[in-house]
Amino acid sequence: MLRTLKILLTSALTKGLVGQFVAWALGYGFIAGLRALRGMPTPWLYEPAVAFGAIVSFIGFLLAAGVLTDWLKWVVGKRTPLRHGTPEGKPEWSRYVNVDYNHKVIGIQYGISAILVLLVGGIFAIIFRIELAQPGMQWLTNDQFNTLFSAHGIVMIASILLGVGAMVNYLVPLMIGASDMAFPRLNAFSYWVSLPAVVLILAGMAVGGWDTGWVGYSTLSLRAPLGVVLFLLGFWINGFSSIASSINMLVTATTMRAKGMTLFRMPIVVWGAAAASIIQLTATQTVGVALTMTVAERVLGLNFFDPNGGGNPILYQHLFWFYSHPVVYVFVLPGLSIISELLPVYARKPLFGYRWVALSSFGIALVGFLVWAHHMFTSGMADVLRMPFMFSTMLVAVPTGVKFFSWVATIWEGKLPKNPPTPLLFVLGAISVFLIGGVTGPILGTIPTDLHLHDSYWIVGHFHATMFGGYIFPFFAALYYWYPKVSGHMYKERLGKIHFWLMLPAFWVMSIGQMSVGLLGMRRRVADYDPALGITTTQVLITLAALVIGWSVLIMVYNFISSARSQPVAETNPWRSRSPEWQIPSPVPEFNYDVPFEVVGEPYDYGLAGSVYTRNLAPAPSGD
Amino acid sequence: MGRFRHFISVVILLIASTVGLRFLFEYIFALPIAASAEAGPIDTLFNGHYWMIAFLFSLIMVFMIYSVFVFRRQDDDETDGPHIHGNTKLEVGWTIIPLFVVLGFGVWGAVTLNEITRPKEGEMTVNVTGKQWIWNFSYPEQDNLGSGELVLPVGRTTVLKMNADDVIHSFWVPEFRVKQDLVPGRETTLRITPTQIGSYKLRCAEICGLNHTLMEADVRVVSDADFQAWVEEKSAAPAFAEMTPEQRGAFWASAEGFGCVACHSQDGTPGVGPTWKGLYSHEVELADGSTTTADDTYITTAIYDPNAQVVSGFNPNIMPQNYRDQFATREQEVESAEAIDLDIAADLIAFIKTLQ
Amino acid sequence: MSAATVQTTHDEAHGHEVPYATQIRSNRLGLWLFLFSELFLFGALFTSRFVLWGNTRPDLSQEVGLLATGVLLLSSYFMYRSETGAAYGDQKRFLRSALIAALMGLLFFIMVVVMEWNVFGLSGSLFGIELFGHLKPSDGVYGGVFYAMTGMHALHVLSGIVLILIIWWNGRRGVFTPERHWGVEATAIYWHYVDVVWIFFYPALYLMGQPA
Ligand code: HEA
Ligand code: HEA
Ligand code: CUA
Ligand SMILES: [Cu+2]
User: Fold this and answer.
1) For residues C59 and A335, what is the distance between their CA atoms, to the nearest angstrom?
2) Is residue C3 very low, low, confident or very high in pLDDT (cuts 50, 70, 90)?
3) For residue B253, is it within any domain?
4) What are the φ and ψ backbone dihedral angles of B220, each rounded to 5 degrees?
5) A100-616 belongs to CATH 3.30.360.10
6) Would you state the pLDDT for residue C1?
7) Same domain flag for B167 and B244
8) End of a domain among B186, B201, B235?
9) How far is the CA of A125 from the centre of ligand 2 (A)?
């Protein structure tokens, strides 16, 4: 007990948080001191001081946690051998609260953080959903409501990015036969930098909150309470994580593939991750510019968006959506590739049209760059822009359709088990949910219908369905599917099934309910609604469904925690997959493959007698 | 069963499911009543989309659920499925066909958009101003008549010319279907042709800060005759010179004036700003801990320079800081029309005095 | 084995980490991806300039702008010399050119941030040329865009200078060899990149559009 506490208190996590706090205080003090020198008093929570402190604070976190140590050593010309394995005299779990460079450890760190952050965002949703169940204000003020839904949106998105990081980090090196990512230190940086970002966003709720939603439109963000600055900076810092991890992923997949693994013999997950990384690599910068400009306009008095100085509020929207539309495909592309990976395993059939599925990820990513202004059909932007964006938006349906049709063709005549295990249930659920999310998209893409639907709950229904179907359900499928690989134990199947059968129907009620009230006139981002709209019953149902979803997620968390202790050791390859990571022991050894492999066949050739995907090469001559 | 038999079953299920879903949508995806001419083509497009949603959802789901149940293997069955890699013809097919479908919908959307946005005959203009968190309308063709509710003659296309004072707002009356943002620093327009006499609610659809939820206004669609009558009644309102300062103050505070009521209640209910009830000549506790008495000087400062003395428990920067200019402009406007020496701030104070 | 490990790290010896040559291939790709990413940062600023300024520009000191641009371009040449010096083992050329490049970078930085930025309250003139700019950060969108573009670029110049100083300092201690000087190569690529960005920024800020 005492030892556990000691390890926790001296962990990089604790040090980082303390470092962040100290650096924040120093940054605040610096500005306050400068003002004091000029004889100016600094009011409590003086915005420039808070903002400067926040920027310094994330560096403080990284320094104190030791994320930058190796790089600083490089600066002074020191060699820094990578540390491997569990530090001597420490328990295995201590790796997860310290800076570790192994991609599997980082992947798990990402995964656990993603779930924790999901719970936080979920609690916010549940709090404001209870308020929305009944017309009239019950237990929140407008102020609290606005802060809660804004924080819910951005916290959930942070959670998704963490979850995508988990899947990419854990799976990509394993699947391509690499021992690690190309840049292990950069990898650790990507993970650790997202923690102070989340801290900033949550801190923003404590210092007045903000009322701009996750989009932070100008000029509202210029007038919003102080919390908005911390939200913008947290969002901004998260961008470092996205850019760094996308560079790492792309380099890893380019230079570290196993012998014989040509592009069209890569596991489909690598394709999805690569397409998502290209978006993260590029688009993140433009939202960074938008966020920087907003902070600069508030704190430094530069002018970009406020029309009183000649600025243009619509410019913010363009810069914002140039990132934030493509980023929805960052959320779903890895998830969709999980679906494509798992279906052939369970159907015992090759992935139908592998090349088309692989290329459609890139198709979606590329077309996704051309559609951003469909979020702005009512914004009053130039009319000549509305039409082209309508057509480009409609085009995204085409490559997405290729995926759906190929999945259906994969399981057609396929031998899915009569008693589907939990990962398969989540995959099938994901298809149905993403489908309803997807098909409710084109109706938003045609402008006349969007004029009614924009900023209504139809949108809320649309994007929860796409994000649950494209990310949450596949992510949960992946968690259950690779759980035996990661932990060495099988999860409890019964609990997994209960989780699914609670979550799927509840989700359907929630999402269809949201769309339904939206059509009838329920606006987004309102704390209250008029009972005359006739939507009270539906609102109650949505809230109840939200509670059920919440409980079901808790069941999953319980399942994972308890199974690691009580369940028997899992078989090496319980799903009879051909993928290389299932051919080695669970949990995976420190350096993945003791014997490197060579790719000699197609990845998804289920049903072809005698075909193999990988073959072991002669053992490498060992060192020492 | 042979492949062909499977396909027949699936097609039957598909048709049943599509029609069934489309029927279900009448209930779960019901639209509010249509009260404008624009709603017509838009609802037709909605209908088209509903059919497509019903069909596509059925298409994938029927195939999927059918496969799950019909082709599944027993628990102890370890054999693999047939080795089918793909089929280029199929892939091309399900790329090209959706491509044409979505392009078709794009064209449909474009035609509809053109129909609802093109200028129509006999248009009337209404200026709409949105500010946190109040709507204000004025009728330039009716002698700049100002109003806090939107009254529209039925059957006549109205062009709304919209401006926002502070942040982005959005004009949405669900029964009219169309929506348009109000953007500070530029004018946006929206065309509406009401077709149904009745009362509706305008609600701001774009998050605009603290009281976004409450940013509403009444919308009334009336017959031509009623519209004329309303205009006359409104225009016959007494001139400012004939009103008492208290009456003027009440007017300035209303949505038609400067919209103070959006934040300051007159009956003691809590709001974004301090209530006006019982304010005058009472003690006020300020954010810096000191107290002061709400006399004329205090209130004038509070209007012109709201951040100078923030009341404890309220946030700075919420109240616009340009009322001195706004008042001056308005005073000049009125003074050039009527022989009166106007002081809006004094009127407001007179009004606040009555709220004890 | 011990003799052979001199050139390899612990990890390479164990076969856990990729050999130096492969690592450099990865590094190079990573760097270019990073620069590609930065293209969108500068691109967004560049686009904002056209949205907010349209066909106008603020009144800026043409002389200082031209001089600063010249200095920065020239510094790229010295950076190139420095890199080839490192590649051919010409220690002296490597170090001296690096230092010159850094100094010229600093000069550019001073000209833009100290002279063009009107935040330090300086004034003065030389040969009848105004040395210090008068565009303030608060001067509407002109101030906003100008400070954002030059500021973001200056930040990159500054980090470039720091990088050059780091390789210079390490170079003096003999860390780099003709075979192993990735640090120098990366710094040089980065420096040229920052330079190229300015080639787009300079006309956008100083030359295009009508002076307002
Ligand atoms: C993971 C997230 C995700 C995904 C995948 C999508 C996918 C799509 N989205 Fe969505 N969207 C969001 C997340 C997502 N969206 C979010 C978060 C918002 C709100 C942001 C905010 O304001 O806060 C939003 C808002 C949003 C808007 C703005 C609405 C508004 O505010 O007015 C629009 C408008 O065009 C739109 C369109 C689409 C389209 C056309 C797709 C397409 O990609 C869908 C394609 C898929 C299919 C169509 C189904 C499968 C295809 C077939 C079966 C083939 C045959 C199909 C046809 C013939 C049509 N979305
Ligand atoms: C992946 C992203 C994601 C996810 C998973 C969710 C999940 C949920 N969302 Fe959210 N949502 C967004 C992304 C997401 N949302 C975004 C981007 C917005 C837009 C914000 C904006 O407008 O700016 C939004 C907005 C939004 C709205 C509209 C708010 C408004 O416009 O006013 C609503 C309303 O119903 C809603 C509801 C829910 C609900 C009920 C869930 C549920 O599924 C949540 C389920 C609950 C849990 C997963 C938590 C379980 C935990 C517990 C029950 C407690 C456990 C306790 C401890 C561990 C201590 N969301
Ligand atoms: Cu005005 Cu919302
Ligand atoms: Cu979008």
Assistant:
1) 52
2) very low
3) yes
4) -120, 130
5) no
6) 30
7) no
8) B235
9) 4
The answer to whether residue A244 scores a pLDDT higher than 70 is yes
Does chain C reach chain A with at least 3 CB pairs under 8 Å?
A: yes
Asked whether residue B275 falls in the same domain as residue B208, the answer is no
Cβ-defined contact of A286 to C144 (cutoff 8 Å): no
- Note whether B85 contacts A: Cβ–Cβ < 8 A: yes
Are B224 and B249 found together in one domain? no
Q: Do C45 and A289 touch (CB under 8 A)?
A: yes
* B182 is a domain residue: yes
Q: Which CATH number do you get for residue B323?
A: 1.10.760.10
Strand order in the sheet with B188-192: B145-147, B134-139, B124-131, B158-164, B188-192
For the Cβ of B208 lying below 6 angstroms from any atom of ligand 3, the answer is yes
Interval A368-374 mean pLDDT: 93
Give the pLDDT confidence of A563-618 residue by residue, as tens digits.
988 888 888 888 989 899 999 888 888 888 888 888 888 888 888 877 888 888 86
Mean pLDDT of chain A: 92
Question: Is residue C198 within a helix (H) or strand (E), and if so which, with residue range?
Answer: helix C182-202
B338-349 pLDDT tens trace: 777 888 888 888
Residue ranges and CATH numbers for the domains of chain C are: 18-211 (1.20.120.80)
CB B156 within 8 A of CB B197: no
Strands B150-153 and B216-222: parallel
Task: Judge whether B65 lies within some domain.
Answer: yes
Residue A474, ligand 2, Cβ within 6 A: no
**Distance in Å, CA A507 to ligand 4 centroid:** 22
Q: Are residues B270 and B347 in the same domain?
A: yes
Residues B247 and B328 reside in one and the same domain: yes
* Whether the Cβ atoms of residue A493 and residue A481 lie closer than 8 Å to each other: no
Which residues are paired to B172 by β-bridges?
B179, B203
Establish whether residue B206 lines the binding site of ligand 3, counting it when its CB lies within 6 angstroms of any ligand atom. yes
At a CB cut-off of 8 Å and minimum separation 6, what does B223 contact?
B153, B154, B197
ipTM of the assembly?
0.92
Same domain, B144 and B249: no
CA A408, A514, B34, A371 dihedral sign is: negative
In chain B, the number of structural domains is: 3
Range of the domain at B277: 240-353
Beta carbons of A285 and C37 less than 8 Å apart: yes
In this prediction, residues B320-333 reach a mean pLDDT of 83
Q: Which residues of A448-476 are buried (b: 16+ CB within 10 A; e: fewer)?
A: bbbbbbbbbbbbbbbbbbbbbbbbbbbbb
Extents of the domains making up chain A: 7-78+94-99, 100-616
Q: Are residues B212 and B253 in the same domain?
A: no
Same-domain check for residues B254 and B292: yes
> Confidence band (pLDDT; 50, 70, 90) for B71?
confident
Residue B48 included in any domain: yes
pLDDT at position A518: 95
Question: Among B202, B235, B268, where does a domain finish?
Answer: B235
Q: Which residues contact B260 (CB under 8 A, 6 or more apart)?
A: B252, B253, B348
Are B141 and B210 in contact, with CB atoms under 8 Å apart? no
Is B123's pLDDT higher than 50?
yes
CB proximity under 8 Å: A 500-519 to B: 512, 515-516, 519
Q: Is A82 in CB contact (< 8 Å) with chain C?
A: yes
pTM score > 0.90 for this model?
yes
